[in-house]
Amino acid sequence: MDELDTPVLDDHMHLDPLVGRGVEAAETFADHGGTHLLVVNKPSWHLLEDLPDGPEDFRRVFDLTVDVVADASDVLPGRAWPVLGVHPALVSQLVEADHDPESARELMQTGLDVAAEYVADGPALALKSGRPHYAVDDDVWAASNAVMKHGFGLAAETGVAIQLHTEGGEDFTDVAEWAEDRGLPAERVVKHFSGGRLQGPTKSVISNKDDLEVAVEADEPFMMETDFIDDPDRPGAVLGPKTVPRRVRWLREEGHDDAVRQAHVETPASVYGIDTEATLQ
Fold first, then answer.
1. How many CA atoms lie within 13 A of 142 on its CB side?
2. Which residues does 16 contact at the CB level (< 8 Å), separation at least 6?
3. Model pLDDT for residues 220-253, shown as the tens digit of each residue
4. pTM, 2 dp
5. What domains are defined for the chain?
6. What pLDDT digit, counting tens, does each position of 165-189 carry?
7. Which residues pair with 229 in a beta bridge?
8. Where are the beta strands (DSSP E) in the chain?
């Protein structure tokens, strides 16, 4: 397929080197015009035989992601970067396994501490945290917010961005303020799976046409993602690896070249400090 003559970044994709398509999904992305990937580690319970119970379990998950990202970079015109952290739904997994919310919080914060080592030492670009996107008890909600705030502090200390998995909605100004209170600029907080409108963090828009049309009309910083989960039992979920390149073509056909540059060059530079043009071969 013809190249797009622009960087094309998928801001949030999973690659599963154990049971999923792994690097093959990155090749599909590249074959359709994709150039750069931010690869987020899958939830730990998807990659481990059991729930994590200490730092070394998180290291195993992160190492799997770092390795598959290195392989993905080899097949991309640009490169891939790891985004490492703790999926917020782990709190529910732990509570169901007889942890109390406070011990679940402590373990999840330990996982973020380990992820921050990977950021500080080089292989990882950003952190990942958040809070459940479903109803939970008040004490679980409080523990989840404490984990997320801990992530903000770590991102501020290491000078990186943090991606959030949260409930839906458009107003997250309070979350952005929590980050800024800990020294992390709001623009370096990225709400993954955003719609086209968002207050507070930077939006990473799920690449449906309707949501992208709203994001373009809003004329604010945004990025594009698929949240491809690389699960053989759910092929193509959430969106397939071809989607972002296809949406970039569509946006350019609609005359939205400025929005494409915003999503794939300018916003990644301001949020993550990456240069998607200089890193093209």
1. 7
2. 22, 42, 46, 47, 68, 230, 231
3. 999 999 999 999 999 888 999 999 999 999 999 9
4. 0.97
5. 9-272 (3.20.20.140)
6. 999 999 999 999 999 999 999 999 9
7. none
8. 9-13, 36-40, 80-85, 126-130, 162-165, 189-194, 202-206, 222-225
